[in-house]
Design goal:
The complex is a heterodimer of chains A (750) and B (158). With 750 residues, chain A is of the alpha+beta class. Chain A is built from 19 helices and 26 strands. Among the domains of chain A are: 150 residues, 2-Layer Sandwich (Aldehyde Oxidoreductase, domain 4); 231 residues, Aldehyde oxidase/xanthine dehydrogenase, molybdopterin binding domain (Aldehyde Oxidoreductase, domain 4), CATH 3.30.365. Chain B is of the alpha+beta class. Chain B has two domains: 73 residues, Ubiquitin-like (UB roll) (Roll), CATH 3.10.20.30; 68 residues, DNA polymerase, domain 1 (Orthogonal Bundle). Classes of the chains: A alpha+beta (750), B alpha+beta (158).
């Protein structure tokens, strides 16, 4: 572990105790989305479009409604027509994606849902819903969608971000542009210029838990939803929008969440379950099958990206030109905006143009996936940078050091960077024994780097001191990867009591203040800051109570190691348990709330080193050694920081080597299972070595930056660069599957 | 549809439940027996989240019809701890942070137990292949493999 600044003597922060929710998760007690059973509960099933693009002519539910056990059947007409109500365009898209009204825009798009007393009855009823479609021509890729005369998904879509606005509608929802300096001059100063074009396929977040929701609606309009999501406040807001009700009528309880990676920040089942429950007058459970998860949720964008970069002989990047088109799926909102902002953000480049397009097509609407948009752009940029380093004979770390963004660098997307740790991640790789480990035959080594903003946003926390001096820390941020532990560690540090004396819980939407989603690597940063704030209010309160007890001024009281001490030692200390036991006499229960809207995010950087072995006979690439160095700011919970780093890398390895959506010519997904959409398994991989770099974020009380996302940004380029090193073939299309490697080797020998 | 009466030993207890012929063991365990530790991640035997032991063999319970386990002995994650004392694998998963979201954990624990029952001193490669039928999307498997190595060491008394 590389630590760049001395640990300031924390007692709890930075330790590795057992996580608060661990016991339930190793004993099978933890309740995930599909685990809840309620008395009288019905099973629901969703009816989905078999077509990629079609007009709904009619839906006949009579046969389904007449079947044994069927209690409710709903279609788009059971929901308010937001477009007719003048709702915001983004809300209309959310509603239409949850259940189609006039057109289906991708295979798997919801057209109806049923609820019945058993699973089998629900499945049979779903099959009995008769939908008549008028099939429309479809477009599946950015190339098809941007082609002249392409069929339109949305007839009124005029490209935003173009001046003057186009007169004709298209499938291009928006254009983004970042530019600086003079491109011609920059390329003129270059000694070497490399230009390449890259493609990537849609890939799924691949969480192991399918989406699940249970709803129990009351006849007075209120409803309780239990669901697995990355943000139950967000699910409440979206559900209220789609249902046309006030958010306050919905109570949402967060089930344990079985993975999300961004894909559970959007709604699919929740409003359907509520409406079915209202119609049936009984609780309804909706759970997706795996093939529904693939066909209708996630994924992230397929892309086409062109990169041209020039360097001088001393390794300085003189100019960069990036053109990118990102699939949005059925509705606008691909992560091309973030892609444009992150593409060259690792580097200080004087002349650049980054241009991007958000393009709709007849595939499921893309959802956030870990550093959304950044990994594809990094695959392209970091591959070209690797070529440039080879062309001028420079070490791949050294060329990155020569251009690395540092404190004060004007980021390519606008602001000046505060203190950041990119250089430290590069040095951590160079200093590691993996960097000089021997390579065998057919093996190669690749380096790549990545940047992600990290998010802040809104969080709330409540801290209660129990009557024996233990504490309950309540937040509304679903714990997707161990965040209860980081909350408890920071609270222990602040209150000065043992970690084991603190219970960290995730409360429902009626029990704690608003929290934005668990996403953007933001929970330890922002929700953690709210916990710290609440703990500091508690400590102020405890000092005041001690002062009252001793009849002294509050400034005579210090809080040290979980007890109030008089500054001159004239009073015997009062521990938290002493003060808690007497709270009734000093003002009542000890409790504090804190809410905030982020206070300064800290940018995250990761540099990674990958060794592969390519079998020239089969084209199979095997990762034999992997090292990831990431600036965590401060690793509150090093176990789970490493977990985020390792998990991000392995998702990236899957993206690099195996994973892709495959559609047939009708726009039907051909590989909607874990058998055919193969994510990495244990036997595919080596251990993933971690170097946690800690360059504290000056804007967070403990220096936290957030660690969840940036780890997935470099792997595709790191793997591609290693393959290039091994077999001297530059792979430009993901995934770099055996068949593509063999094709490339054949082309090379021709 | 008529339901079949099934008797099996589940986590050490003789257990009776009803299931339709086409009901998976996984759904019967979850809906009828009330054991929701085994999870459905795919329903096609590809992810291992529903792994249980049937007569000491690790099996994806989504691919077994409930009536097939008549008379069998079944172990689910709920039966792994002994009177509240965690199995060394459970303890090592906790101490080694071998879970993030935790949805795959029950299946990994069962698959790892099946491995260690047969091979108390597996190599890293043997562990990786024994667990290759269990998908984890959060951890990258590193800490899971290490936790199994540690549990194996402890169980061998080292």
């Amino acid at each position: 572990m590389a630590i760049t600044e001395e640990n300031p003597g924390y007692k709890w922060v930075g330790t590795r105790p057992i996580r608060p929710d661990g016991l339930e998760k190793v004993t099978g007690k933890a309740q995930f989305g599909a685990d809840l059973m309620l008395p009288g509960m019905l099973f629901g099933k969703v009816v989905r479009s078999p077509h990629a693009h079609a007009r709904i002519v009619s839906i006949d539910t009579t046969a389904a409604e007449a079947m044994v056990g069927v209690k409710a059947v709903i279609t788009g007409s059971d929901f308010p027509d937001l477009a007719a109500n003048g709702a915001h365009a983004s809300d209309i898209d959310v509603a239409n994606n949850a259940i189609a009204r006039e057109k289906v825009l991708y295979e798997g798009h919801v057209v109806a849902a049923v609820a019945a007393t058993t699973r089998d009855q629900a499945e049979a009823a779903a099959k009995a819903v008769e939908v008549t479609y008028e099939i429309l021509p479809h477009v599946l890729t950015v190339d098809e969608a941007m082609a002249e005369g392409a069929p339109l998904l949305h007839e009124g879509m005029i490209t935003k971000g173009v001046d003057p606005a186009p007169e004709e509608p298209s499938n291009v929802a928006s254009k983004i542009l970042h530019e600086r300096g003079d491109l011609d001059q920059g390329f003129g100063e270059a000694d070497v210029v490399v230009e390449r074009e890259f493609t990537t396929k849609p890939v799924h977040q691949g969480y192991i838990e399918p989406h699940a929701a249970v709803a129990d609606a009351n006849s007075d309009g209120r409803a309780h939803i239990w669901c697995s999501s990355q943000g139950h406040f967000q699910m409440r807001a979206y559900s209220a929008t789609v249902l046309g009700v006030s958010p306050g009528t919905l109570k949402v309880t967060a089930a344990e969440i079985g993975g999300g990676f961004g894909g559970k920040t959007v709604i699919y089942l929740e409003p359907l379950a509520v409406r079915l429950s209202q119609r049936a007058g009984r609780p309804v459970k909706l759970v997706m099958d795996r093939d529904e998860v693939f066909r209708a949720t996630g994924p992230t964008s397929g892309t086409r990206i062109r990169v041209k970069m020039g360097v001088s002989q001393d390794g300085k990047i003189t100019a960069a030109e990036v053109w990118m088109a990102y699939e949005a799926g059925a509705y606008s909102g691909s992560p091309v905006g973030a892609a444009g902002m992150t593409a060259i953000a690792c580097y200080d480049i004087p002349n650049f143009v980054v241009e991007g397009y958000d393009v709709v097509c007849n595939k499921p609407r893309v959802a956030a996936y870990r550093a959304p948009g950044a990994p594809m752009a990094a695959f392209a940029v970091e591959s070209v940078l690797d070529d440039l380093a080879r062309d001028i004979g420079m070490d791949p770390i050294d060329i990155r050091l020569a251009n690395a963004a540092v404190e004060g660098t004007q980021a390519s997307y606008g602001p000046k960077f505060p203190r950041i740790g990119f250089v430290e991640t590069l040095e951590a790789i160079k200093d590691h024994p993996n960097y000089t480990a021997d390579l065998g035959p057919n093996q190669g080594r690749g380096v790549a780097a990545g940047f992600w903003f990290n998010a802040g946003m809104m969080s709330s926390a409540t801290v209660h001191i129990n009557e024996n001096g233990t504490a309950t820390v309540v937040t509304g941020s679903p714990d997707i990867g161990g965040s209860r532990q980081s909350m408890a560690l920071m609270a222990a540090e602040e209150l000065g009591i043992p970690y084991e004396s603190i219970k960290a819980v995730v409360a429902d939407t009626e029990t704690v203040g608003f929290n934005d989603v668990t996403g953007g690597s933001r929970v330890t940063l922002a929700t953690g800051a709210a916990v710290v704030d609440a703990c500091r209010l508690i400590v102020e309160d405890l000092r005041a109570r001690a002062a009252k007890t001793w009849d002294v001024e509050v400034d005579q009281v210090e809080w040290v190691d979980g007890q109030a001490q008089h500054v001159d030692g004239s009073q015997p200390p009062l521990s938290l348990s002493d003060l808690a036991a007497k709270s009734g006499r000093t003002g009542g229960p000890i409790s504090a709330n804190a809410s905030l809207n982020s206070r300064g995010v800290g940018a995250g950087f990761s540099t990674q080193l990958c060794d592969v072995e390519v079998d020239p006979e089969t084209g199979v690439t095997r990762v034999v050694r992997y090292l990831t160095a990431q600036d965590a700011g401060r690793a509150i919970s090093p176990d789970y920081v490493e977990g985020q780093m390792q998990g991000g890398v392995v998702q990236g390895i899957g993206w690099a080597l195996n994973e892709e959506y495959i559609h047939d010519q009708d726009g039907v997904m051909e590989n909607p299972s874990f058998l055919d959409y193969r994510i990495p398994v244990a036997s595919d991989l080596p251990m993933i070595d971690c170097a946690i770099v800690e360059v504290p974020n000056p804007a967070h009380p403990y220096g936290v930056r957030g660690v969840g996302e940036v780890g997935i940004v470099p792997p595709m380029a790191a793997v591609g660069n290693a393959i290039n090193d091994a077999i001297d073939v530059r792979m430009t299309d993901l995934p770099m599957s055996p068949v593509r490697i063999l094709e490339a080797l054949t082309e090379q020998s021709d | 549809m008529a339901r079949t009466h099934i008797t099996a030993v589940v986590n050490g207890d003789e257990t009776e439940f009803l299931a339709e012929d086409g009901t998976s063991l996984l759904n019967a365990l979850r809906d009828e027996v009330g054991l929701t530790g085994a999870k459905e991640g795919c329903g096609t035997g590809d992810c291992g989240a529903c792994s249980v032991m049937i007569d000491e063999k690790v099996t994806t319970s989504c691919l077994v019809f409930a009536p097939e386990v008549q008379g069998a002995t079944i172990l689910t994650v709920e039966g792994l701890a002994d009177s509240g004392e965690l199995h060394p694998l459970q303890q090592c998963f906790l101490e080694g942070a071998a879970l993030q979201c935790g949805i795959c954990t029950p299946g990994f624990l069962i698959a790892a137990k099946a491995l260690l029952d047969k091979n108390p001193d597996p190599t890293e490669t043997e562990i990786r292949y024994a667990l290759a039928g269990n998908l984890c999307r959060c951890t990258g498997y590193d800490k899971i493999v290490r936790a199994v190595q540690e549990a194996a060491r402890e169980m061998r008394g080292q």
